[in-house]
């Protein structure tokens, strides 16, 4: 580093770290590093470092944290917490190079690390510990008596990919683990959060340090992100390519458009590194197969590799290695497993097939592209719509996938993305933490559980004492806990079995899809992100089905063909859409603006959606009469629509959230009857959750939800997925409009 570029922040670093920076021939510190070093080098402060991918966040945290460690009188410890083992492996390689010059040991700790390495760390308890929440959970459970000694000299907790934890059961677990460690060592340990995607900094601050104490200091990079180039291509799937043109449930057909999309991907991606996101594991397998087949037909080396959570570790590692090596180009067809910061090197472009799960997800994915100086980030979008026929659903008429893609890109360009849902009770994680605390301490009193997990600043602060006692008693009924004669809570027969299995340490379930079964034949699988009820109609494989039975334990939905009627809007797609996205979709449908990043077909599809919107008069009317069904178009998020459906079911109707609205089965009533029932809900008050969610299934969304009493299960689900305030607000608005 030339003397002319030496800054005040650089001068604060330990001279050995300064020499390392010189050896790497850095010209200057990054903006985010200049801001972070003065805050962290002295220790004592909670800090959030928010900057784009590859902006130098890791060094912004570790340069000053290591300088602080080197200045400590006693040997200290930095605990780096990552959501991914692969990210730990990457950071180990980066930190080892730096720390070997400092004589500071670096200790990776996860399921693939040898027990001998872990024992060496527990003997020394200094340096840099790289660990996942799950491994930290295991450490507290299995070495509870030594928690205080292990972490007594911790100088910092550094939490990478902070946004991946906020609002999730895993995030609640992490909050609990940090709180329990701080209770064990008798002091607060400074926390540093790193993230590239943080919308609401206040939410991020309250997550990093819950309670009423000083808020973390937030620093953001002032450097502008890379130039962004966008192209969205549209495709229209023919109505039906059928092997048997008969109207029964054995009719099968195949989509032809994915082959055309794959052909374009093959043409534009070959010869460079890229990421392709088809939004499902099935899509990953399909497009990988098509692209591998094209490589074989063209007699060229394969460049296309799969990556999703159901694949073995070895296959995922092969894909990551293919992306890292520089000799041959490689493109990964992946799910969100490659959204986070695993070091796969720079990619030229990101391809998104269909609208992404969220704007935040799209932003995170795009952070992989345009990382080299002077290179633009490139987004290639692919919208696939069905041709419109006589019985096409409203979603096809309005070209909702294309409109949603446009809305998400529009919001991305404006810098908006979804805030996390921070009001979730996450009682599933509370159950796990009770069992973990018992394991750590060899038994606890009811008062100790409440003090550790529910007191001021604790992760479950705010849980009413009556609900707490109801839950603890229910855990006894479930044989997860038992109470001895002295009043000490211990593991029950079932609790001991769970805690002694390695799968206990994860607070979350591996996402499972429901199997769709008709007359004993499995039609396929479907991710379902909302409650289900018997009698509901769903759209699957191009046909409308009536739900006859739901088996939550076996993750199966038994259906029969729905005779007659208009296809429903609900297609079972995974992910939950925010109100701001739906409002932007409506704005785009009411606009005449041409989108410069849409190709001719995508623009035509958008224009067709706008035409259908105008012809149906949807700018003035929110109600669509479809004969046996009524659709209320709210253009609100899924949490509002699902709450609205609950209120209508309380009025005696079969009602279901359906994309940008709610579908209601008339059941012999008139359209006006349904409308009156809707308006009445705004003045009848909100019934209890026990009544509103009566008959609802698929409420077991988190790992330990099965262990909750019914009332708390419904409360936990509602806290995460239902927005009754938004539902009533919408009803009152349309009532006022007449």
Structure described in brief:
Helix content is 41%, strand content 17%. It has 738 residues and is of the alpha/beta class.
Topology:
Elements: H1 8-11, H2 15-23, H3 31-40, E1 47-50, H4 57-71, E2 77-81, H5 85-99, E3 106-109, H6 115-124, E4 127-131, H7 133-142, H8 147-151, E5 154-159, H9 169-185, E6 191-195, H10 201-208, E7 217-220, E8 228-237, H11 257-269, E9 274-277, H12 281-297, E10 304-307, H13 313-324, E11 331-334, E12 349-353, H14 359-366, E13 377-386, H15 394-397, H16 400-413, H17 427-441, H18 446-454, H19 465-477, E14 481-483, E15 489-491, H20 493-499, E16 514-518, E17 521-526, E18 537-540, E19 543-551, E20 556-561, H21 579-590, H22 600-615, E21 623-625, E22 629-633, H23 638-650, E23 654-658, E24 661-665, H24 671-684, H25 689-692, H26 710-721, H27 724-736
Parallel strand pairs: 1-6, 1-7, 2-4, 2-5, 3-4, 5-6, 8-13, 9-11, 9-12, 10-11, 12-13, 16-20
Antiparallel strand pairs: 14-15, 16-17, 18-19, 19-20, 21-22, 22-24, 23-24
Helix pairs in contact: 3-4, 7-9, 7-17, 9-17, 11-12, 14-16, 16-21, 23-27, 24-27
Labels describing this entry:
alpha/beta, Rossmann fold, Arc Repressor Mutant, subunit A, 6-stranded parallel β-sheet, 27 helices, 24 strands, 17% strand, globular
Question: What does this molecule look like?
Answer:
The chain is α/β, with parallel strands linked by helices. The chain has four domains: 3-220, Rossmann fold (3-Layer(aba) Sandwich); 228-413, Rossmann fold, CATH 3.40.50; 427-505, Arc Repressor Mutant, subunit A (Orthogonal Bundle); 514-575 and 621-736, no CATH class. Helix content is 41%, strand content 17%. Strands 3-4-2-5-6-1-7 form a seven-stranded parallel beta sheet, sandwiched between helices. Strands 8-13-12-9-11-10 form a six-stranded parallel beta sheet, sandwiched between helices. The protein has a five-stranded mixed beta sheet with strand order 17-16-20-19-18, with no helix packed on it. Helix 9 (169-185) links the parallel strand 5 and strand 6. Helix 3 runs parallel beside helix 4 and helix 11 packs across helix 12. The longest helix is centred in the first third of the chain and has 17 residues, at 169-185. The chain is globular and about 80 Å long. The protein starts with 7 loop residues before the first helix and ends with a helix.
């Amino acid at each position: 580093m030339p003397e002319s570029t030496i800054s005040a922040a650089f001068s604060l670093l330990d001279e050995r770290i300064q020499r390392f920076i010189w050896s790497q021939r850095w010209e200057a510190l990054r903006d985010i590093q200049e801001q972070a070093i003065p805050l962290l080098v002295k220790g004592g402060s909670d800090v959030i470092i928010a900057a784009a991918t590859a902006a130098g966040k890791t060094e912004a945290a570790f340069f000053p944290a290591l300088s602080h460690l080197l200045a400590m009188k006693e040997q200290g410890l930095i605990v780096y917490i990552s959501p991914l083992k692969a990210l730990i492996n990457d950071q180990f390689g980066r930190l080892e190079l730096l720390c070997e010059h400092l004589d500071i040991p670096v200790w990776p700790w996860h399921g693939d690390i040898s027990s001998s390495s872990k024992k060496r760390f527990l003997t020394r308890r200094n340096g840099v510990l790289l660990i996942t929440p799950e491994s930290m959970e295991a450490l507290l459970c299995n070495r509870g008596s030594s928690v205080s000694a292990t972490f007594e000299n911790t100088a910092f907790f550094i939490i990478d990919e902070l946004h991946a934890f906020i609002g999730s059961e895993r995030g609640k677990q992490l909050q609990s683990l940090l709180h329990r460690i701080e209770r064990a060592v008798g002091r607060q340990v400074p926390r540093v959060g790193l993230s590239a995607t943080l919308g609401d900094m206040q939410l991020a601050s309250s997550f990093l340090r819950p309670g009423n104490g000083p808020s973390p200091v937030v620093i953001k990079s002032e450097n502008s992100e890379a130039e962004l180039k966008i192209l969205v291509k549209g495709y229209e799937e023919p109505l039906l390519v059928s092997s048997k043109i008969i109207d029964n449930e054995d009719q099968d057909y195949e989509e032809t458009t994915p082959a055309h999309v794959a052909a374009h991907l093959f043409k534009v991606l070959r010869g460079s590194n890229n990421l392709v996101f088809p939004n499902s594991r099935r899509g990953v397998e399909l497009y990988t197969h098509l692209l591998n087949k094209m490589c074989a037909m063209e007699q060229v080396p394969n460049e296309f590799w799969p990556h999703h959570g159901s694949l073995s570790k070895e296959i995922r590692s092969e894909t990551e290695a293919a992306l890292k090596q520089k000799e041959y180009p490689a493109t990964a067809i992946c799910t969100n497993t490659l959204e986070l910061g695993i070091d796969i090197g720079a990619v030229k472009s990101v391809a998104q097939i269909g609208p992404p799960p969220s704007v935040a997800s799209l932003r995170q994915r795009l952070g992989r592209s345009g990382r080299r100086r002077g290179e633009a980030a490139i987004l290639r979008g692919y919208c696939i719509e069905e041709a419109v026929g006589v019985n096409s659903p409203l979603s096809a008429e309005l070209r909702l996938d294309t409109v949603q893609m446009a809305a998400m890109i529009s919001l991305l360009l404006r810098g908006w993305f979804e805030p996390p849902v921070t009001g979730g009770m996450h009682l599933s994680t509370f159950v796990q933490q009770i069992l973990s605390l018992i394991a750590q301490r060899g038994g606890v009193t009811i008062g100790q559980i409440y003090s550790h997990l529910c007191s001021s600043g604790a992760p479950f602060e705010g849980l009413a004492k009556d609900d707490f006692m109801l839950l603890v008693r229910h855990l006894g009924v479930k044989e997860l806990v038992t109470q001895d004669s002295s009043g000490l809570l211990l593991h029950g027969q079932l609790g001991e079995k769970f805690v002694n299995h390695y799968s206990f340490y994860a607070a979350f379930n591996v996402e499972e899809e429901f199997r769709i079964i008709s007359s004993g034949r499995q039609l396929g699988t479907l991710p379902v992100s909302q409650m289900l009820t018997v009698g509901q109609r769903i759209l699957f494989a191009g046909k409308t089905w009536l739900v006859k039975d739901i088996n939550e334990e076996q993750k199966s939905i038994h259906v029969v063909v729905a005779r007659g009627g208009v296809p429903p809007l609900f297609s079972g797609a995974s992910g939950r859409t925010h109100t701001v996205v739906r409002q932007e979709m409506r704005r785009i449908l009411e606009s005449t603006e041409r989108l410069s990043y849409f190709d001719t077909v995508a623009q035509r599809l958008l224009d067709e959606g706008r035409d259908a919107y105008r012809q149906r008069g949807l700018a003035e009317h929110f109600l669509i009469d479809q004969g046996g069904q009524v659709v209320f178009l709210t253009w609100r998020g899924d949490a509002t629509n699902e709450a609205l459906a609950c209120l209508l079911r309380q009025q005696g109707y079969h009602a279901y959230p359906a994309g940008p609205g709610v579908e209601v089965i008339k059941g012999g009533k008139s359209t006006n009857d349904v409308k009156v029932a809707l308006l009445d809900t705004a003045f009848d008050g909100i019934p209890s959750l026990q009544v509103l969610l009566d008959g609802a299934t698929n409420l077991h969304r988190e790992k330990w939800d099965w262990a909750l009493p019914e009332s708390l299960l419904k409360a936990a689900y509602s806290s995460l997925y239902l927005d009754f305030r938004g539902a009533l607000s919408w009803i009152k608005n349309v009532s006022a409009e007449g």
